[in-house]
Amino acid sequence: xxEVAPKLREVFVEALDLDGDVDVENLKYRDIEAWxxxxxxxxxxxxxxxxxxxxxxxxxxxxxxxxxxxxxxTELQAKND
Length: 81
Prior knowledge:
It comes from Amycolatopsis melonis. By secondary structure, the protein is mainly alpha-helical.
């Protein structure tokens, strides 16, 4: 995974209030109770703040897993550079 992954993992853990034993790298939307629609919006906001990026509506809807989030953040950062 990219260099985004370790920091993004921390954001997932904090935003979704996850235990240390959760396999964040393989986490998918609605796999756990905390990642419901409300948790999703909190997660999106936390990612945007941490990485200084902004997702459009389609990206918010399409963010279905940790791996997808890594790809999205990496792509947005490349566009901002």
